[in-house]
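Its record is set out here:
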Amino acid sequence: MQPVDNKKVGIMLKSANQFFRKFISFFLIFQLSFFQLISLTTPQLVYAQAETELTASYDATAHELDLALSQNSESEYRVYYQADQLEAVTGNYVVEESIFLGICSDEDCVEDVVSKLIVKVNADNEVQVQRLELINDVLNLVDSYTSVSLELDDDEQFWLENKTAQGWQENEDGSYTIDNVELDYIYTAPQNDQVSVTFTQLPADSGNLTI
């Protein structure tokens, strides 16, 4: 058996140690780069907060406007409508609220004749607005948008006070019909806003108007 050359063994161990260190360094750099690349290419999930949506409906039996929010939210509301004069109902609710459209004293309630309403609700630091028409006990959404105030602006007040009828139904021949016309309303043709009809006299059975 030949004697062990300690010098050669030391050199071999030193070379192996250097190789191992380089391998470990390379592996760590590769691992760091790999995970950085993964973090850059992996899509990040962003959860958007759902907006609170306002829904309005009409209970003909109780003569009430029902307001509902899609999620719990402490909200201040204003309901405006034109009766003998401009009426405004204010309050706060969380999810649902029923508003009688009229005046109650003790046990007696008098229903207001309502054709147009504007509902404003301050939810999620944003005022949601709906313009509504009540025709033959059916509540129709005319327009919806956002505003900066719960108060009526000039355009909204004019819309409430001006008796301009909506609720036209389109016929197959391209004409439009509205049911049960009323006195002093401005019936503007949907296909031409320069054409309008206003009735100053009507029979007991007013009937429909087709333009």
In short: The two ends are 120 Å apart (CA to CA). The mean pLDDT is 78. DSSP finds two helices and 15 strands in the chain. The first strand starts at residue 54 and ends at 59.
